[in-house]
Amino acid sequence: MRYITLITTGGTIEKTYDEGTGTLENRRSIVRRMLRRLRLEDTHVSCQELMSKDSLFMTDEDRACIVTAVRNAIAASAKPTGVVILHGTDTLAVTGERLAAELSPCPAPVVLTGAMRPFEMTRSDALQNLTEAVFAAGVLPPGVYCVAHGRAMAFPGVVKDRARHTFVKVD
């Protein structure tokens, strides 16, 4: 049995459309709705709603909260197989770099993922990236990773490639 702790922070992956204002906003976590669409054999996912923010508005204090939440998840008495963090793609790399620096050596796989298009929109990559991240957190060796679009890349050195709408590894 794999035990995955999933920490939500908001970001595009969880944005929902507000018909009254015509805007996409982070109002509440929708990850449980996403997880119900997946078939996860031998996998238990526990969710922690840490915050609901667009990553462009994340502060150093928010990132410190994420680091603390990951440490707490790893140190829990029922140790997780891995940790998944749903995060906005705009500053996912900043948080990944901080986690890699502060959790070194990292005792479990910690996977950051997000989406270029919200789950609620057509042609969204949200469900694919969530599925890949949950799977990766159960099979990757300890470390901090970005998992998206069929790839797992270890930090440091992962950046968002805005032209390609994905993440890439730079040396």
Which helices and strands appear, and what pairs or packs with what?
Elements: E1 2-10, E2 16-18, E3 23-25, H1 31-35, E4 43-53, H2 60-75, E5 82-86, H3 92-102, E6 109-113, H4 126-139, E7 143-148, E8 151-154, E9 158-161, E10 166-169
Parallel strand pairs: 1-4, 1-5, 5-6, 6-7
Antiparallel strand pairs: 2-3, 7-8, 9-10
Describe the structure.
- The structure is a single chain.
- This protein has four helices and ten strands.
- It has a six-stranded mixed β-sheet with strand order 4-1-5-6-7-8, with helices on both faces.
- With 171 residues, the chain is α/β, with parallel strands linked by helices.
- A hairpin with a 4-residue loop joins β9 (158-161) and β10.
- The longest helix has 16 residues, at 60-75.
- The chain has one domain (2-169): Rossmann fold (3-Layer(aba) Sandwich).
- It has helices spanning 31-35, 60-75, 92-102, 126-139, and strands at 2-10, 16-18, 23-25, 43-53, 82-86, 109-113, 143-148, 151-154, 158-161, 166-169.
Structural descriptors:
171 residues; alpha/beta; Rossmann fold; 4 helices; 27% helix; 32% strand
Structural class: alpha/beta
CATH superfamily: L-asparaginase, N-terminal domain
Q: How many strand elements?
A: 10
CATH fold description: Rossmann fold
How big a fraction of the residues is strand? 25-35%
Distance between the termini: 36 Å
Average pLDDT figure: 88
Question: Can you tell me the residue ranges where pLDDT is under 50 for at least 5 consecutive residues?
Answer: none
Shape: globular
Number of domains: 1
| Helix-strand topology string | EEEHEHEHEHEEEE
Secondary-structure arrangement, i.e. CATH architecture:
3-Layer(aba) Sandwich
The CATH class is identified as Alpha Beta
As a whole number of angstroms, the C-alpha radius of gyration is 15 Å
Question: Roughly how much helix do the residues carry, as a percent range?
Answer: 25-40%
Please, how many helices?
Answer: 4
Main sheet characteristics: 6 strands, mixed
